[in-house]
Design brief:
By secondary structure, the protein is mainly beta. The chain has no helices and nine strands. A hairpin with a 2-residue loop joins strand 2 and strand 3. The radius of gyration is 13 Å and the shape is globular. The structure holds FE2/S2 (inorganic) cluster.
């Protein structure tokens, strides 16, 4: 396991999502980070339905009501806290969660 710097906390205002691509051992890890109040969540940017990226637009992962993470392709909805799919073709499956740590104003990924 290693730590990878993602961004400064102020680059992730509350209720926003941001995508990242980290090159690890010559492979790209695609992920999204969701900022909610004081909490941060990170998931691999990989829909369990077809194994493709969740977003069509850069950094856009939220449903219209901003209550769930939403896959752009077939509209599957995932909870913020667990990445659990509550509606759509992959209901009952989950996004792969990743571990983050906040160090002062910096956000780091453990992988
Ligand atoms: S690819 Fe995500 S819901 Fe179908």
């Amino acid at each position: 396991m290693s730590w990878y710097f993602l961004c400064k906390k102020h680059e992730l205002p509350t209720n926003t999502t941001k995508s990242f691509s980290i090159n690890i051992d010559e492979k790209d890890l695609e992920l999204l980070v969701l900022s909610q109040e004081e909490k941060l969540y990170a998931y691999q940017n990989h829909c369990p339905h077809l194994g493709i990226p969740l977003n069509w637009q850069p950094d856009q992962f939220l449903s219209l009501e901003e209550t769930h993470i939403q896959c752009s392709t077939h509209g599957a909805l995932f909870t913020f806290e667990e990445g659990y799919c509550v509606a759509g073709p992959c209901s009952g499956q989950s996004l792969s969660s990743l571990t983050l740590e906040q160090r002062n104003d910096e956000i780091w990924l453990q992988y």
